[in-house]
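ok trying again, last paste got cut off:
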Amino acid sequence: MSAFLLSMSFVVLAEMGDKTQLLAMAFATRYKATTVLWAVFWATLINHLLAVVVGNYLTHFIPIQYIQIAAAVSFILFGLWTIRGDELNNEDKRFSFSPFWTVAIAFFIAEMGDKTQLATIALAAKYQSVIPVWLGTTTGMVIADAIGIVIGIVIGKKIPERAVKWFAAIIFILFGLIGLYQYLPGTLLTPVNIAAALLFISVAVFCVARMGKA
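nice, full thing came through this time. structure:
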């Protein structure tokens, strides 16, 4: 159950302000919200099944400690990615099938290589569990996109994007740092190295934030 809940929570945070959430909101202005959510659900279900299988398969030929370290680093990168933000590149106008298939195909393609898919791969590798992570990340995507649609379309209020992004980014970076502290060899965890790592991440956050503003 913990793998399911943590996977769901991480993906909800990762999806806030993400390109695929913006895509769902854009489609909701043209199609029924229920149609958009069903399409998001099925596209995510298939996309993340591929992701968890890949993530779980990695553990057969890469030591789990290395995978856990890589997962911790990836969470920090997800945090920086979240700060930088995403923009739509006409994904909502690329297809002209029925509403369901238009949303599903566009969403599936937009999710390929996106940070929520990469987070799913990392979570599957970390927990070595396919079904709980698969269902957790899929549920998280649907929840996050439902929130975006309700706030952005039904209620008609603007999402406080800056606050949401920073909250999600801090959570990701914090979990990444905790993971590195847990899985890196003790010989590397000297005060000097820890201070240098924190300084490096602080500079990276500052630079990425400036890039996002630009």
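cool. Residues 33-57 form the longest helix (25 residues). Residues 83 and 133 are 25 Å apart (CA to CA).
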